User: Fold this.
Amino acid sequence: MKFTFMRRGIAAVAAASLITIGAPIVTSASAAEACALGATCEGALEGSLGVSPYTIKMPEKFNGTVLLYSHGYRFSGPIPAAFAGPAALNLMADPNYAPTKVPGFVANFKSDIAYQATNNAQVAPTDAVAQGLLAQGYALAGAGYAQQGWATNEGVQAGENLIREINSGAIAKPKKIMVWGDSLGGLISQTIAERNPGKVAGSLPSCGVVEGPVQAFSSAMTLLYTWKTLVNPNLVVANYAAGQQGYAQALGDLAGVFGVLGAAATTPATPLGYPLLQANLLGGLMAGSPTVSSVYDGVTLNPFIDVLAQNPAVGVVAANSAASALGYSPVSAGASSVVAMLQNVGTAAALGILGRYDLETRVRAVGGFAPTENANFNDNVQVRYTKLISTEQFYEFGDVLNQTLVMPDALNTMLAALDSSVGDSAKRFPANPKAVQIVNGFAAPKGDYSVPTLMISTTYDPAVPAGNTSEFFASMEKSYNKMNKKKRGLFKAAAFYTSPPVDGWTKFAPGGKAPDAALSIAALGNSGVGHCVYTPEQVLGAVRGLNAMVNANTAKKVTAAKRLVYAVPGVNNDRMFLPDALKKPLLAR
Amino acid sequence: MRFKFATGTVALGTAAALAFATAIPAQAADPGVTSNKIVLGMTTPLTGPAAPGYKDIPPAAKAYFDYVNRNGGINGRKVDLRVFDDAYNPALTKKGTSQLILRDKIFAMFGALGTPTHSAVVQDLNRRGIPDVFINTGGASFDNPGRYPMTFPYLPSYIVESKVMGYYMKNDPVLKSKTKCLFYQDGEFGDNAKVGFKAAGTTFAATASYFFGQQAAPFTAQISKLKSAGCELVVFFGVTSATIQLLNSAAKGGFAPTWMITSVGSDPSVLKGTLGAATGPLLKGAYVPSFIVPDQEIKNPYVSQMRAIAKAAGLDWNSYTYIGINTAYVLSQAIKAAGKNLTRKGLVNALQTQSKTFRSAAVVPMVINSKSHQGLTGYFMGQYAANLDLERLTQYVMVATSSSKGTAQKITFSPAPPTKKLLP
Assistant:
């Protein structure tokens, strides 16, 4: 086995990673050469699932703790440029995607330009965070995955190999290794921690999809089945065809969703005769998507309503409807939530469609499926969708879900349409038990308490609802409570949720008819809203808290460690706060 | 079935309360209670389109608590009511409730208003074990001690109201032969009403609906539908702003059926704000159920004393100030019944075990126990006169549960007189 270490600048690292896609430097070692203080070292490790590059960044003064980072989801296939812009998936500016050409895209997407994920290693979610951690003396390490998509097996293997490498001398005299990761990387890092309690001192799954793929994609199916039933009957939704034909179907679904979302403002009714905005809101609610977004806070109304309310000719009572007639929005909390859900559904649908295609492809490969065999792993045949909208949501959003001229009694009518096919395998999506078994076999944490674990999530996450964090934390707590009281030690675990920087983040340019995205949450200091969107202070605070928790030897010190995180601006310090519970279609029968 | 409050029952209840209070083990004080103060929270619209009328409730409740505070408080504690204006916006209700819990450290929520708004926070309040007392909504879903053990409605539910309407229409010699139609607001109002009317066996020749917000424009299509169906009696389930549009649209369409309007959609003071002098002629003859002594009966000991409290605080006397004072009065009795060692658990127990002893201007029985948090259980039938007084048509009252089954029952009920000086 052979090692290759390089001292490079950051820019050179990205270039080197691109090279490894085509010609990996296959290396391994019996005794690694230690990465020098202040250096960036790269290499690649071979495992049974393929080759994964890695990066180690050493601080000038090492504090003894290594942070091993697992990055989040990267799409497995090439993404047409039409979907890669800032208004959609925003991949063009992402250093982990590289432009490529796919001639076959011209026909459907008017361009052959596409964006393909690399297998770059990442040592932190952002450079600012990396620099902050290095300044505190942490050594940073991270591995790329041998494949992209739902690469949990590859990610876990890459992480475990890198731990072995570190312990073999790639970092000199590490006192402890803590794992962390965002999104899919949260799932991966927690799995590594559960499986390697003797090698991992602590874990920090952030915005992690830790409740696993069946839960995540069953919610995505809820959303997309609602769309298929009420909005766009041509969506494939699940059991995509094998190979490239299936990828074309998935991209077709994505185009089918994005195209409708883009025209939602001027399309009151769907081709199936349902109110589009209400159908989308209903689907999002049943899937567990938040009703606020980075632009729409669900609270702030257009200030022009106040102007009209002061006008005696209009008055308070008629001000909202008058503003609406003049094109000012939003004029109600419900209207704000409706538009927020358009934004959020776009995010959720991308993972729900392309992620499902990738997982089904993996199922086909692992199971040796014939091309026509059903690869669906989420069964919705017996799901009663009415049960997925809680009593509280039914009444909280009832008025806005009925607020349409497209049809009377819209909410009840839409729910009846969704439930009319209960039990009908031809109209619903039966799962193949073999596919379910295979997906359940992919690397994922079990929810057992194994090492000190600090979880963090934004309160309003459209891709991985914060309920993943709260429910996983509850599982860990339950598992700890079942452990032998004499042997289990202190319960060193906590879950934190970040809050928006201000109560109302919907902002308007003077006289603006609609909110101004540039003035909204991004301009106010990202916090609390979006997928894995944190301030650097929040991430650094979470690492600091985890480190203190790992080192704590008394309950008081565990509490003090938690306080370190609660004290960070934007972290919700309401100790009893819980995000919305996850929606569980499998239980809605 | 006969409901009657007796002095003996009251005495027994008080004894039970004392016994219960002494049975509570010593424990750390709940938030919002000190030796001399109780902090309560309320979310309600003080601004925005839903504010007219409802904005009068919090100052009225405060006026009553101030009156109690001036008279020694409740078991020596003064009541401090913190009000958050949610503008009838559920997202603001969440924010306000959180603020009341975390910043104001309330002991209990009181009189939170609105079904959409309260639905946004009811689970969280219950999870945190915060008493959620006498919510201001007729939404039947809140009477669910299994799901919401800390939540206590006060108003009769819309299901109860529709059952009562169904009972009255079936038995009134004038109304029973009329061609009946239903006009409702989509969502909770309509769903609850349909459940109640189905249980009551009421059928309608035609139905029409509107969605919340649609009342900004005339109900031309709906009126045309009801008119062409030959509706002679139209039952309306919706909000007051929609009642205004309904009466206006019907008048313009030359449609003059007999109206039966839900109690929450017919307040004359709000109607007058828009309809002005036309309110009397338009509303005259409309049937409206009510559960409380009509507010113009100023010789009634409840009305006279509550009106005096409102006037002393410089408040207009209308149905909202009346409700605000009345529910504050009932809550004060519950807090007193919870004993000197006031805890959240104690308040819940007092509500569940002693509600029959609580006095109020309501003329229907109140049912609260461990299995049902229904609150008030029925109505009498009233009818508006041209001067907008609500005349009581039935001396009996009609009571029902919020279940999807069972009809209303006719009973006589004699409420107990007010406590001395209307103090708890």
